[in-house]
Specification:
Beta Polymerase, domain 2, 7 strands, five-stranded mixed beta sheet, 2 domains, NT_sf, transferase, Nucleotidyltransferase, transferase activity, RlaP
Length: 256
C-alpha cells in the first residue's frame, strides 16, 4: 500500500503543479491502534509555485479527493497550514510528528515542527482534545461502546492531560500517552489495543468499571483545569519569515 500511496502523491504533484513538503499517515495506523479494516488516512502539506501566491486569483488552499474503502487523501497548502499553526491548531502538530512518512522535504518539515513548538497554546489544545472526547462519549451506552469509539475517547483525554501536565504538544502515538495511566489500566489498554488489531472497528465491547470511572474522573479533571491554563497569543513574525524564505528559495518548478 505504501507504494500505491507514494505513486498517488506523485500524480497529485504533477496534476496540480504543486510540491509536497510533508505527507504522512494521520489516523489509527499512526496513532498505534489500527484494526484490520482501518483505512489509510493520508495527509499532506504542499507548496504552490511562487507565481500562484503573487497572482490576483486566490490560491487553492486545500486538496480533497474521493474517499475509497482503503484510502482517504487530503492536503493543505503551506500558507493555510501556517495560519493554523499560528492558532495553535493541534492537527498540523500531529501531522508533523507522524511516525509514518510517505514523502517529505525533511529540512522544511523540521522547521515546521520547531514552529509548532513555539506556537503551542496549552489551553487551546486541551479544548480541542476535550471536544473530541466529549463527542465520542455520546456513543457510550452504559459500559458498551464500539472499540473504535473507545479509543476516540481515551486518546484525546490522554492528550489533554499531557498538555496540562507537561505543557508540551501531546505525542501523536498512544504508547507514550499510556504512561499517564495507572498500572492496572495501562495493562488493560495494551490488551485492548492487541484485541483491536484482530477485530473490525465497529466491534462492540464492554469496558471495565474502573476504566469507565477513569474516563468520567479524567473528563471532569480536564474541565476543572482549563480555567487555570493561560490563554496565549502569538505574533505571526516567525511564520511570516519562514513562509517568505521558503518562497524565496523556490521557483515555479522546483522547491529546494
Amino acid at each position: 500500500m505504501q507504494n500505491i500511496i507514494q505513486q498517488q502523491l506523485q500524480q497529485i504533484e504533477q496534476k496540480h503543479n504543486i510540491k509536497i513538503i510533508h505527507a504522512c499517515e494521520s489516523g489509527s495506523r499512526a496513532w498505534g491502534f489500527a484494526s484490520p479494516n482501518s483505512d489509510y488516512d493520508v495527509r499532506f502539506i504542499y507548496l504552490h509555485p511562487i507565481e500562484k501566491y503573487l497572482a490576483i486569483e486566490p490560491i487553492k488552499n486545500q486538496l480533497t479527493f474521493p474517499i475509497t474503502s482503503e484510502l482517504d487523501i487530503h492536503g493543505w497548502d503551506l500558507k493555510k497550514t501556517l495560519q493554523l499553526i499560528h492558532k495553535s491548531n493541534a492537527t498540523p502538530f500531529e501531522w508533523l510528528q507522524s511516525p509514518i512518512i510517505y514523502q517529505q522535504q525533511t529540512h522544511l518539515a523540521q522547521q515546521l515542527w520547531r514552529l509548532c513548538a513555539h506556537y503551542f497554546n496549552p489551553r487551546g489544545n486541551v479544548h480541542h482534545y476535550l471536544g473530541i472526547a466529549t463527542s465520542a462519549l455520546q456513543n457510550l451506552n452504559g459500559r458498551q461502546i464500539k472499540i473504535k469509539q473507545l479509543f476516540y475517547i481515551l486518546r484525546p483525554l490522554l492528550c489533554a492531560c499531557w498538555c496540562i501536565q507537561h505543557k508540551q504538544i501531546a505525542p501523536m502515538t498512544i504508547t507514550p500517552l499510556l504512561q499517564l495511566l495507572p498500572a492496572d489500566l495501562h495493562k488493560q489498554i495494551l490488551e485492548l489495543i492487541d484485541f483491536k488489531n484482530t477485530v473490525v472497528e465497529s466491534h462492540i465491547i464492554e469496558i471495565s468499571s474502573n476504566l469507565h470511572d477513569y474516563i468520567t474522573t479524567t473528563t471532569n479533571y480536564i474541565k476543572s483545569q482549563i480555567p487555570q491554563l493561560p490563554e496565549l497569543n502569538f505574533t505571526a513574525t516567525q511564520l511570516d519569515t519562514f513562509f517568505i524564505n521558503t518562497l524565496k528559495n523556490c521557483t515555479s518548478h522546483e522547491h529546494q
